[in-house]
Amino acid sequence: MKNLAFALILFLIFCFAALAQTNETSPCPMISITGPSDIISPNEPIIFAAHFSKKAEDFNLKYNWIVSSGEIIEGQGTLIVKVLQNDISKNLTATVEIKGLPKECESIASVTMSVDLARKPELFAEFSTASLQIDKARLDSLTKKLLDEPTATIYIIEKFKPNTSQKSIKQKVQKIKDYLIKEKGIEKDIIVILTALSDKNLSQFFIVPIGSSPPTINDK
Questions:
Q1: Is 205 exposed, middle or buried (0-12, 13-18, 19+ CB in 10 A)?
Q2: How far apart are the first and last CA of the chain?
Q3: Which band of pLDDT confidence, cut at 50, 70 and 90, is reported for residue 40?
Q4: Secondary structure (3-state) at 31
């Protein structure tokens, strides 16, 4: 009985030793991908990097990156790539395929960046103007800003004094639309103009990212 127990102990020791030796001598490197830790900002390059354990130095490796909801603008074929997200309403996944590893090794790794859809409307400009006057310089700046947010919507809130006629209000709204659509080439579907009465004439320009709630009209 003692001999059987001793043999069993020796067998278990041999198994653990063999397992430890297999882990130590395994040719497969560990693979991981890191991405940005902050919230993804539209139209800013996102950097993904592949990381390997030291064992990867034993192989002549090649890398092929694939991304969803984006495009690779720099670094394809290397350990680090830069990506531009083309649909901020979807999560962005980066996958690297490694060629040159032994067949028994894992050769694919991925990471997914979650999209923050809780972004708030951005107040781009707020200023006072005459009831029929439009500020073309600020509208020009607004359209340039839109280049950084191609999927966003423009919200313009025009506030008028209570004694302003409906005719004047409609004329100003039409002036803004004509300038943005006809002269600046902005699609009419992404322009929303709201009006309200207030104690002073006031214009507010908002950039509203996709998925965000529209701005609310606050009395002033």
A1: buried
A2: 93
A3: low
A4: strand
Domains of the chain: 28-113 (2.60.40.10), 122-208 (3.30.1330.60)
Tell me if 65 sits within 8 A of 96, measured CB to CB. Answer: yes
CA distances from 101 to 55, 57, 63, 97 (A): 10, 11, 11, 10
Q: What's 89-102 look like in SS3?
A: CCCEEEEEEEECCC
Q: For position 209, what pLDDT does the model report? A: 83
| pLDDT at residue 25, as a whole number | 59
State how far the alpha carbon of 1 is from the alpha carbons of 5, 8, 11, in Å: 6, 11, 15
Cα separations in angstroms, 75 against 32, 81, 102, 153, 190: 17, 4, 24, 32, 34
% of the chain with per-residue pLDDT over 90: 49
d(CA 183, CA 166): 25
3-state secondary structure of 46: strand
**What is the pTM (predicted TM-score) of this model?**
0.50
pLDDT level of residue 207 (50, 70, 90 thresholds):
very high
- d(CA 80, CA 71) in angstroms, rounded, equals 14
